[in-house]
Amino acid sequence: MSIERTKWLKDIEVAQTMTTNKMSGVYTCPELKSSTMRVGQDDHAEHPSRRGNTLYYRDGRTERVTQ
Q1: By the 8 A CB rule, do 10 and 17 touch?
Q2: For 22-56, what is each residue's pLDDT tens digit?
């Protein structure tokens, strides 16, 4: 075997025998549990969607737009 490969194998052996102390406990990600609430976040629901020359309301109504 080459000298470089022997050195590499010794480094791997050392790395495999080393242990690490893992952190204890459980992280529950509290920052991801509550959603951001802001004033007016649902105001868009009051307005119809426009596709072409037709307005579509959330209650099912449609209106043609005249120019």
Answers
A1: no
A2: 667 788 888 777 777 888 888 988 899 999 999 99
Report pTM.
Answer: 0.42
Give dist(CA 2, CA 9) in Å, integer.
11
Residues listed for the chain: 67
Q: Which residue has the tokens 């120019």?
A: 67
| CA 19/CA 12 separation, integer angstroms | 13
Buried b (16+ CB within 10 A) or exposed e, 19-56: eeeeeeeeeeeeeeeeeeeeeeeeeeeeeeeeeeeeee
